[in-house]
Specification:
The structure is a homodimer. The first copy, chain A, is mostly helical. Chain A contains 8 helices and 2 strands; from the N terminus they run H-H-H-H-H-H-H-E-E-H. In chain A, strands 1-2 form a two-stranded antiparallel ribbon. The two termini of chain A are 25 Å apart.
Chain lengths: 180, 180
Amino acid sequence: MKSAPLPAPLPDWTDLLRRTPTLVDAWLRGLPDRWLDVDEGPGTWSVRNVVGHLIEGERSDWLPRVRHLLRHGEAVAFPPFDRVAQERRGPRSIEELLDEFATMRAESLRELHAIGLTPTDLARTGRHPEFGVVTLRQHLATWVAHDQTHAMQIARIFGRSLAADVGPWRAYLRAARPPE
Amino acid sequence: MKSAPLPAPLPDWTDLLRRTPTLVDAWLRGLPDRWLDVDEGPGTWSVRNVVGHLIEGERSDWLPRVRHLLRHGEAVAFPPFDRVAQERRGPRSIEELLDEFATMRAESLRELHAIGLTPTDLARTGRHPEFGVVTLRQHLATWVAHDQTHAMQIARIFGRSLAADVGPWRAYLRAARPPE
């Protein structure tokens, strides 16, 4: 396997992070509600919920935890991230959600750049409420991988909604298969 | 589960199809080679290969099989789709690949619109070399779901390349997990 480990300096880490709002926008803006509201069954998310969750990540997870770790090290655990915070907010249009995500991601990346993390900073450690000691580098890599996980989810939500329509091709279409 | 079955008339089917070149472009154009060349291990694809495969689908699968089915019905099986045709072509830049995919997809959708499929047409049947009798409706739904499957693949390729970097968060990140 060719590997693509995250290098220092920092700007290279943001190749994917800065693209996520644009690609999600290209995927979802202007879609009819039947695509925006479809989900994978009871208790699962629609793509609208996914964008809401990405916004919550910017608000209370990614940069807030960078600041927290740099300030407190291992002495104070991160506040737990509320993974369903967005579900308590009222319904919002996809346009509003996409605009907010783009604005917040741009602001996060501006602040990250302004902090000017060094390789030494990346090795600094903090305390995760569940996992224990983690490095800043792991936290930042998780930000990148988390975007990709939710891009997978968007594709899977759409694909599964077509599972009954594709007939025998289902065997070849990972996105159209039921949950494992 | 809220369902989003593909409706007639046809224009609604293309909501997602016409977005795919734009979202893949937003995701990949201008990325450094270390992202474009990373794969999931021996015998697996990079995102560059995925775009090449999407181009081959336009060239020899989606509209060609629509034409074939309308002409031959069940009498003549579809020619088999060569799923690795793109691997025999020489290396090409991501920009060239993205441009070609966008051009070909736009042309496919123009032709699909020009054919003006009716609900009766959608129920027409053809013969798949492996699956036997399939409907035109299933073929078109497969086109939509196939895009989503390869969007999942792009996200997974990137996510897995970070598996070693995310540390304990791996448990939460589907995209960063090893193949099942």
